[in-house]
Amino acid sequence: MKTKLSIMGMIAALIYSCQDKTGVNSNEDEINQDLVQAADIERQTLREWFSFNREADSVIASANSIIKREIENHDRRGRTKNNIVITQYHLERLKKKVKYIKDYEVSTEHFDENVSYTLDSLKVDYLQEKLKLEAALCEFNVYELP
Predict the structure, then answer these.
(1) Of these four, 51, 103, 104, 142, which has the most CB atoms within 10 Å of its CB?
(2) Contact 53, 102 (CB under 8 A)
(3) pTM value surpassing 0.70
(4) CA 106-111-128 angle, 5° bins
(5) Dihedral over Cα of 96, 98, 102, 104: its sign
């Protein structure tokens, strides 16, 4: 009788230990898959936003130089300072949007789908202001017939 009980106990322990390990492995696999997916999202988001930062810096620098050139030459072309003021306004708004996006990126500890969605929304705001700035800059390139 003791032999039957000890065999039954060993079988129960063996079954229990196999079930426990299988559960841990599946949990570890799920965690590993989640980590891989999170790393992919983070890598993709960072790659996209590094290029955004370069583009934004380039647009701002270019707009600054065009505005400076127009300030120096606006009297000669007979235009009012209104175009310059409007363009500077849009440039300052663009700078604020870019600064906010960069601050948001820096304060984010880990990237997930919600962060990616928020950054995409902020990028839409940036693109709208960029279009307004570009439209204002186009006003500088108006050619007058003699």
Answers:
(1) 104
(2) yes
(3) no
(4) 70
(5) positive
